[in-house]
Amino acid sequence: VYLHQAEQPMQRLQALQCQANQRGMHSLETELYLAMAEVAFLQGDPRTANACLTDGLLLIGRFNVQQPLRELGLRQPMMLRELGVEERLIAATDNPLSLRELEVLKLIAQGSSNLQIAEQLFISLHTVKTHARRIHSKLGVERRTQAVAKAKALGLMA
After folding, report:
1. Is-contact 147 141, C-beta < 8 A?
2. Given its phi and psi angles, is residue 16 left (phi above 0), alpha (psi -120 to 50 degrees) or beta?
3. Which helix or strand (DSSP H or E) is residue 129 part of?
């Protein structure tokens, strides 16, 4: 969609949303509604974007699925503001990382290896890797250096 190469993205997302609904996959259905809102917004259709966002927010409230909204807030903060999402929902996207994830990220920023982080925080190596994976997912990055840079850009780290 960003590259204007997707063929009928709304129709494809709607079909997936219907399947997710029929199978009771509430988290996926929520993500699909938010993706449809983003696509509609990018295509200049604020009415459809607002309708899809509203449906997504209803599912978020009903099933307490916050992560898709946080990720959308990171990708499209202006979209949420322009569509009039309440300030408290925008605030919830400001810091998607837990305190422990921030501790791990600060040690990553200092150049510590996973093993050094595990020893310093008295946690297992597996736990460090899990925290790192979640940090990458929440910030939408693939590498440690990208995570640090994005966290600094978002004001999550000094």
Report:
1. yes
2. alpha
3. helix 125-139
Output the CA angle 37-43-47, nearest 5 degrees: 55
Structure tokens at 56: 């997504």
| Interatomic CA distance for residues 107 and 148, integer angstroms | 10
Report pLDDT for 92. Answer: 47
Estimate the crossing angle of helix 99-109 against helix 125-139, to 10 degrees: 100
* Sequential DSSP letters for 85-118: --HHHHHHTT--S-HHHHHHHHHHHTT--HHHHH
Chain mean pLDDT for the chain: 87
Dist CA 87 CA 10 (whole Å): 27
Q: Which residue has tokens 């997936």?
A: 16
**pLDDT tens, residue by residue, 135-156:** 998 888 999 999 999 888 888 8
- Summarize pLDDT for 57-71 with one digit per residue, the tens: 888 877 767 778 878
Query: Position of tokens 């791990």?
Result: 104
Is this model's pTM higher than 0.70 or not? no
pLDDT tens readout for residues 98-110: 889 999 999 999 9
Tokens 């040690």: give the residue.
Answer: 107
Query: How far is 67 from 81, CA to CA, in rounded Å?
Result: 18
